[in-house]
Amino acid sequence: MTDGEDTPDAGEAAEASGADGTVDTATGGTAIRRDRFSGGPARGFMSSLAADERIFGADLQVDRAHTVMLAEQDIVGDDDAAAILSALDDVEAAGHGELPDAEDVHEAIETAVIGRVGLEGGRMHTARSRNDEVATCIRYRLRSDLFEALETVVGAREQLLDAAAEHTETLLPGFTHLQYAQPVTVAHWVLSYEGPLARDTERLLAAFDTTNRSPLGAAAFAGTPFDVDRARTAELLGFDGTVANSMDATSSRDFLVETTSALTTLATTLSGLAEDLVVYSGRDYLEISDDYASTSSIMPQKKNPDTLEIVRATAGEAQGALQRLLTTLKGLPRSYNIDLQEATPPAWTAVDSVPPALEVATGALTTAEWHEDVLAGEAAAGFSTATGVADRLAMAGVPFRTAHEVVASVAEDLDPGQNAPAIDELEAAAEEVLGEPLTAYVDRETLESTLDPVESVAMRDSPGGPAPEAVAAQIDAARERLATDEGAIAERSDVVATGLDELESEVADRV
């Protein structure tokens, strides 16, 4: 994805071409690098041809759109445009593996076109540089990766919402600092991850919108004297518009940062989800499906949540990719610098690793078997209903801090393994702190009910809380938000498809 920046003239092309106009690669010459710059160990060091296989298809589409525009603007004749477009079809059919050796895929494709068409094939590169070409190819390919990531995220959200709907009354111990805190439900816990995924969707949509702007026509960085129609090539490639400033178009990679950052945020959330599932599996709250587990090579009784541990590690991979990208971009001067060749791989790392990790984490969660009997017993562990008792007293008129003191004094004296105090113990503590019986504020039946984890959950019916009706409202709202996001993705997909359909039609008419 490097760039020599200058389009060779016919004389230079002739030096490396045979009588039939083909490029003489026997001496190392290509459409751009000629003999003078074609040798030495640095060529291999600089080459990105193998890695560029990822953008092979994107480059062909960018070449087609640019050629169509050149013909429409009468910059290139119709016959030459038709020959170039036909050659591009041949190059595509042959595949990336049949490209001539070159510094990058852009140079290789141009060399292959000239080899098929003759010197006139070099007209394809009129009014552009590899600088704007590569920036366009990266955005084109990243756009499709973002679509796939978005589809994975919205699919995961739908699965999580279905899982939550099945467990609105399944008790689950809630923790802070990994200590028993307050009882909640499995549904409430699941929704605590669907919410971040919804925000991840927003971030990825924003990254898509930043990415889906065309740099093509900016040339090396300073524009071109040719009467190009940048809006037309953007339209044919399904972009929403152009990156207006030609220097910005070729040198900025903030869209890579935005994408990688969004995926890293997603991976960090997934790491927490995976850790919860590993911990819950170890506490026997659930059993991970065999499809997402493995056994030990020496201990036959073991069932390990290995896939989830890899999900945790993916967060480190994504964070490392983001740091690598930011470090590469830090301090680069305007305009184009070949450091930018090393800016793209970290983004590919993120788009290749994070969506599959999401699929695995979601699959492990939605196929797990929850041990509801274990969960019901654990939900009251560690006097986790204590806050509910303090709330009851506060609701009856006791200042909350005083109510907190009453319940805390009882909690201090609980025997090891005792999940909740007896009512008599609560009454004695209240007498000591309040100077009057606890029943002066709350009757015994209500207190006994409050010590029950089921009732403790039901009490917490504030918006966003774990009570079944509050969770049901959250699920409904989340489904509406999901439908909106699916519509936003479909709308963007339609715009891209319309442009590419028009490009296909224009090419077919000219070949």
Automatic annotation (TrEMBL):
Pathway: Amino-acid biosynthesis; L-arginine biosynthesis; L-arginine from L-ornithine and carbamoyl phosphate: step 3/3. Residues 10-31 have a biased composition (Low complexity). One of its GO terms (biological process) is L-arginine biosynthetic process via ornithine. Its EC number is 4.3.2.1. Residues 1-37 are annotated as: Disordered. GO terms for molecular function: argininosuccinate lyase activity. SUPFAM superfamilies: L-aspartase-like. Residues 52-320 form the Fumarate lyase N-terminal domain. Keywords: Amino-acid biosynthesis, Arginine biosynthesis, Cytoplasm, Lyase. Gene3D superfamilies: Fumarase/aspartase (C-terminal domain), Fumarase/aspartase (Central domain), Fumarase/aspartase (N-terminal domain). It is an enzyme of class 4 (lyase). It catalyses: 2-(N(omega)-L-arginino)succinate = fumarate + L-arginine. Its main location: cytoplasm. It is found in: Cytoplasm. Coiled coil: none annotated. PANTHER family: ARGININOSUCCINATE LYASE. HAMAP family: Arg_succ_lyase. This is Argininosuccinate lyase. It comes from Halosimplex litoreum. The lineage of its organism: Archaea, Methanobacteriati, Methanobacteriota, Stenosarchaea group, Halobacteria. The gene is argH.
